[in-house]
C-alpha cells in the first residue's frame, strides 16, 4: 500500500501481500494489525483467484494475489458454492508447512522447531478468514457459517485442507465428481483425484489437487497445493500471463519432486 499509489497508471501490478485483498478497512486493520493508508485504491484491485475470476483478471491493471490458505479453501469450496447445494456450517481444517510463515526465523515458526512438532495456531483469528468469507459471498449465495482452523504441519512446504460440509440433498460419488469436473473443465492447474490428494504430488508445482468423499448429504473435500507456488508466486505468474494475453501455463510447467 506504500508502493502502489506511486506507480504510473500504465503500469500493471500484482500484489502478493494482503494489503488489497479486503474491501473492508476495519476488517483489514483488525486482522493485519496495521492501519490501511490506501483504501481509495482498493476498489481498483481484482481478486486474483485465477480459476474463479479469470475474465476479470484478463482486463485488470491491479491484482490482489490470494493468500495460500484462501486459495486451497476457495478452490475446494467453489463448485459447491456455485451449485447452491451447501446447507449449514462449513468446517475447514487446514495445515501448512514451515515455509508458510515466510523466511524470517521466529521462535515458534522456524523450521527446526516445526519439523518435529504439530500444533494449531490463530484459532478463529487467522487473517485469511475475512478474505475467504468475502470471496465466498462473491461466488454465490453464501449463507453458511465458516469455522476455519489452521495447523502447523511438520514439512517444509505444502498446504492440505480438509473441508467438511453438508448439502441440501443426498449426492452420490458420481454426482460430486461430475459437479467438480464440470466446474473445472477448463482449469489446467486443477487436478481431480480419487480419494485424498497427497502434498508430495503438488510440491514445487502450480497444481492444486482436489479429492473428496461423500456419504449421503455429508461431503468432505480435500485440497492440496504448494504454498510457495500455487499458493503464492505461481498463481501470480498465472495471473500475469492472463493480464498480458499470454498462454496461462507459460513459465509454469514445473517438474514436481515426487518420487
Q: Would you give an account of this structure?
A:
The chain is of the alpha/beta class and 259 residues long. It has 2 domains: 4-66 and 231-243, Rossmann fold (3-Layer(aba) Sandwich); 68-228, Dihydrodipicolinate Reductase, domain 2 (2-Layer Sandwich), CATH 3.30.360.10. 29% of the residues lie in helices and 20% in strands. The chain contains 8 helices and 10 strands. It has a 7-stranded mixed β-sheet with strand order 5-6-4-7-10-9-8. α4 packs parallel to α6 (128-139). The termini are far apart. The relative contact order is 0.17. The model has no long low-confidence stretch (mean pLDDT 92).
Q: Sheet with the most strands? A: 7 strands, mixed
Assign the CATH topology of the largest domain.
Answer: Dihydrodipicolinate Reductase, domain 2
CATH class of the largest domain: Alpha Beta
- Uncertain segments are none
Element pattern in H and E: EHHEHEHEHEHEEHEEEH
Q: Sum up the overall morphology in one term.
A: globular
CATH architecture of the largest domain: 2-Layer Sandwich
Whole-number count of domains: 2
Query: Could you tell me the number of beta strands?
Result: 10
Q: Assign the CATH superfamily of the largest domain.
A: Dihydrodipicolinate Reductase, domain 2
Measured distance between first and last alpha carbons: 41 Å
Instruction: Tell me roughly what share of residues is in helical segments.
Output: 25-40%
Number of helices: 8
The largest sheet has its strands arranged as 5-6-4-7-10-9-8
